[in-house]
Amino acid sequence: MFDPTKPIVTLTEAATSHVHRLMARADNNVIGLRVGVKTAGCSGMQYDVQFATEQKPFEDKIEQDGVTLFIDPTAVMFLIGSQMDWQEDKFSAKFVFSNPNEIARCGCGESFSVSTPS
Fold first, then answer.
1. In the sheet that 82-88 helps form, which strands lie side by side, from edge to edge?
2. Which residues does 48 contact at the CB level (< 8 Å), separation at least 6?
3. 29-100, which class in CATH?
4. Which of 39, 75, 83, 90 is surrounded by the fewest CB atoms within 10 Å?
5. Contacts of 108 (CB under 8 A, 6+ apart)
C-alpha cells in the first residue's frame, strides 16, 4: 500500500557519484535521469534508467546530493522505498535496485515481479 512518508527512490553514494560522472559527459540538454519500469524479462518487469531532457507531466522529481531523478508516474507504485545503487565488478557495471516491493527476481537478476494489491 502507498506510504506517503517513504521516499520513492533514494540513491547510494556510489549511485550518486556515477550519475555525476554520467551527467558530466552527457549532452547539455540532459537535466537528470528518468527512472521507470517496463514489461520485460522472465519475471515480468525490468528497471529502466534513461537520460531526461525535460520533466514530463505527472512525473515526480527527486533531488539528492546534486542528482535529479524523474520518476515515471506509472512506476511509482512499484518503486516506493527502493534504493538505487551502482555496482561494478570484473564482468559488469550497472545500476542495481534494492526494492522492498519485489516478491521474486529471475535467475539472471535482470527482471523482477511485485505483489499486486488485492
1. 9-11, 82-88, 93-98
2. 34, 35, 36, 37, 38, 72, 75
3. mainly beta
4. 90
5. none
Alpha-helical (H) ranges within the chain are 13-25, 76-79
Q: What is the pLDDT of residues 18-60, one digit of tens each?
A: 999 999 999 889 999 999 998 876 657 888 999 999 999 999 9
Q: Give the chain's mean pLDDT.
A: 85
- The amino acid at residue 41 is G
First vs last C-alpha separation in the chain = 10
CB-based contacts of 103: which residues, under 8 Å, 6+ apart?
A: 113, 114, 115
Q: What is the pTM of this model?
A: 0.82
Q: If you count DSSP H runs as helices and E runs as strands, how many of each does the chain have, helices first?
A: 2, 9
What distances in angstroms separate CA 88 from CA 32, 37, 52, 72, one per listed residue? 21, 22, 23, 26
Spatial separation of the C-alpha atoms in residues 96 and 109, rounded to whole Å: 9
Q: Are strands 93-98 and 60-64 parallel, antiparallel or unpaired?
A: unpaired
| Residue 46, amino acid | Q
